[in-house]
Amino acid sequence: xxxxxxxxxxVDVNEEGxxxxxxxxxxxxxxxxxxxxxxxxxxxxxxxxxFIRNKQANSESITIRSVGNSGIIDxxxxxxxxxxxxxxxxxxxxxxxxxxxxx
Amino acid sequence: xxxEEHPLKKVCIICAKGTIEDxxxxxxxxNGAVMEGIETKVFFTFFGxxxxxxxxxxxxxxxxxGNPAMRMPGGLPFPTLxxxxxxxxxxxxxxxxxxxxxxxxxxxxxxxxxxxAGGGEIYACKLAMDMFKLEKTDLWxxxxxVLTIGEFYEMCGGLQTQIIFT
Lengths: 103, 166
Hints:
- The structure holds two protein chains of two kinds.
- Chain A has helices at about 25-35, 45-55, 65-70, 75-80, 85-95; strands at about 1-5, 10-15.
- Chain A is mostly helical.
- Chain A has one domain (about 1-95).
- In chain A, β1 and β2 (about 10-15) form a beta hairpin.
- The longest helix of chain A has 15 residues, at about 45-55.
- The termini of chain A are far apart.
- Chain B has one domain (about 10-65, about 85-165): Hypothetical Protein Ychn, Chain: A, CATH 3.40.1260.
- In chain B, about 35% of the residues lie in helices and about 15% in strands.
- A five-stranded parallel sheet of chain B has the order 4-3-2-1-5.
- In chain B, α1 (about 20-35) links the parallel β1 (about 10-15) and β2 (about 40-45).
- In chain B, about 30% of the residues are buried.
- The interface between A and B is medium-sized, with 19 and 16 residues.
């Protein structure tokens, strides 16, 4: 377990850089993590982050399909928002653990 | 050598069988690759073509005979003779599909759309299409092309590329 400073706040992260305590998360922290991933965070990104944070808080499984059905964005748009590995990047920016789902 | 130094860049996945489990193994692996940002090309051939044929893709079946891993709900053995009765295969297959839906695993057509949305490419085998008398119009609309195996191999070049036969 290590720590990192984002937006002047010290947060706990694991060896892959995922935050381990979702309650430490703020939008400012998200903005800085996004910058590390070369993403300029918009309200749309934040809406997706809030959506998956809620799912995580309710212990529901987080799948790319559920994001596509969220009404926030379709799957194609999700890939465009978080290029490369959308589910992992979104989880990292949203301050939750790496998704454990295969779909 | 660690996985960080040589991450997988491209996967080429071949599906040659048409049961629920064969097609879904292909789809889960393909979608999983796309989600990891890995370039993904999928080739459907022989009975695997059912997985991208409009008429059959959303009602695939699992074989209820000759499958020793098939069990009754609760874990008792599933007698092969039972599997031969009319309707049993359809019932078991419907049960499998509903179990998958509970895990948020989509129907085949939606799964293919997800793969396509992430940039994955779906191809059909020309030889098998000729054999089964299929036309491009019989296939799911997102199929990017009908290829010979040689043409598919041409797409499979490059370092850090794997060909997977499910």
